[in-house]
Structures are given as structure tokens and as C-alpha cells.
Amino acid sequence: QITLKESGPTLVKPTQTLTLTCTFSGFSLSTSGVGVGWIRQPPGKALEWLALIYWDVNERYSPSLKNRLTVTKDTSRNQVVLTLTNVDPVDTATYYCAHRLLTSGSYWRYFDYWGQGMLVTVSS
Amino acid sequence: DIQLTQSPSSVSASVGDRVTITCRASQGISSWLAWYQQKPGQAPNLLIYAASALQSGVPSRFSGSGSGTDFTLTISSLQPEDFATYFCQQAYSFPLTFGGGTKVEFK
């Protein structure tokens, strides 16, 4: 059974760096095709895709955040870490990590398992 | 970036109603579209992928159609647990993008 869970600070001050950890089970990020995405959702608003990290060295980022965003993986600990620098109140959102859909041996850019989400507030 | 426009932004319906939600892409995306359901305080739940493929475990009253720029999510007979917000997502190209959402409310 696949599960994911986000962890990290719930309150961050403007200009600081936000670091969130996604700890997962039921799959391995060393398996070919596997990917983990990050998506966020400001309160009462729509979803925004942030990044997707693959089993190999490839990563994809939202262009609007690429200069501030880094995603890394620790395969041995089954974790993916999101780092967002120079945060602003507009970065206040629930942050989700999610597993890339796999069907009959095909991997897709959709997300079938999600973490419960973590609300991060940026405020002084 | 590919923009996804959902309509309506909200719809009032009753149990048993047929509900249709539309998602329009700013450029052609073939069939690279998914639909998610989100209830308050919960993570999104994948319903439909590749425009019309029903995700495992999702009731058959949910269906998706369309290709190119125009897509539809249909709930054939609305059930009490279907009152939620629905989002579309394109997977044709990066950055992946989501629609603004459609809230299905009690009439």
C-alpha cells in the first residue's frame, strides 16, 4: 500500500527558507519510472504544480518558482525534500506530495496517491 | 504555459441529478487530461486520467470525454458523497497545470 506524508514547519517568516519532507512507503524511488510530485494550494484557491522528481537524475520545476525551488531525494530513507527559498506571504498554502500514476507498466504525469497535505503559513 | 478554464465555477444540484463540468485548454492537449475530486480538508482524489480512463476504485457514475481543447466530466447520478470541488489537470507539457475548480453544491 502506497502512503505519503509531508512534514516540516507550519510557520515560516518572510525571506526565510522553507524545507518540507515527504516520507513515503509502498514504492521505491530507485525503481525505473517512479516519480514524486509536489503540488500546493493556497487557502480557498486552485492547485498549483511545483515540481516532479524522477527515479533517475531528472527533475522538472515550475518555471515561475524555478529560481527558488529545489527538490532532492534520499532513496535509502524513502524521502523527498522540497526547499523553497526567500518565502513570501503569497507562498502560504497547503503543500502536498504525490505519487506519479502507474498503470499496466506505463507511467503518467498524473497523481494517484497524495499525502494528507501540510498547511504552511508565511508570516512575520 | 497551458491554461485550463473550467466552467461553471459552481453548480447547484440535487441527489440523482446528472452533472456536467467542462474544462477547456488554451491549446490542444490531445487526451492528456485528468479529473480530480477534492473534499474540504482532504487531498485531491484522482477520478479520470487520459481524458476518459476511470481510475481504479472510482464509481462508474463518473465518466470523462473529450480531446484536443474541450473536455467534460459527467456524474450520471449525483450521490451525497459527490458534493465536492472538481479540478482538471493537463499532462501534455510542463509545467503541469490545473483548472480553477468547479464546486458542486446542494441545490
> What ranges of chain A have pLDDT less than 50 throughout 5 or more consecutive residues?
none
Unreliable stretches of chain B (pLDDT < 50, length at least 5) are none
Q: Give the overall silhouette of chain B.
A: globular
Distance between the termini of chain A: 40 Å
* Oligomerization status of the protein chains: heterodimer
How helix-rich are the residues of chain A, as a percent range? under 10%
Number of helices of chain B: 0
SSE layout and pairing:
The complex is a heterodimer of chains A (124) and B (107).
Chain A: E1 3-7, E2 11-12, E3 18-25, E4 35-41, E5 48-54, E6 59-61, E7 69-74, E8 79-84, E9 93-103, E10 106-114, E11 118-122
Parallel strand pairs in A: 2-11
Antiparallel strand pairs in A: 1-3, 3-8, 4-5, 4-9, 5-6, 7-8, 9-10, 9-11
Chain B: E1 4-7, E2 10-13, E3 19-25, E4 33-38, E5 45-49, E6 53-54, E7 62-67, E8 70-75, E9 85-90, E10 97-98, E11 102-106
What does this structure look like?
- The complex is a heterodimer of chains A (124) and B (107).
- Chain A has 124 residues and is mainly β.
- Helices cover 0% and strands 56% of the residues of chain A.
- Chain A contains no helices and 11 strands.
- In chain A, strands 2, 4, 5, 6, 9, 10 and 11 form a 7-stranded mixed sheet that branches. A 4-stranded antiparallel sheet of chain A has the order 1-3-8-7, with no helix packed on it.
- In chain A, strand 7 and strand 8 form a beta hairpin.
- The termini of chain A are far apart.
- The model of chain A has no long low-confidence stretch (mean pLDDT 96).
- With 107 residues, chain B is mainly beta.
- Helix content of chain B is 0%, strand content 50%.
- Chain B contains no helices and 11 strands.
- The mean pLDDT of chain B is 97.
- Chains A and B meet through strand 5, strand 9 and strand 10 of A and strand 5 and strand 10 of B.
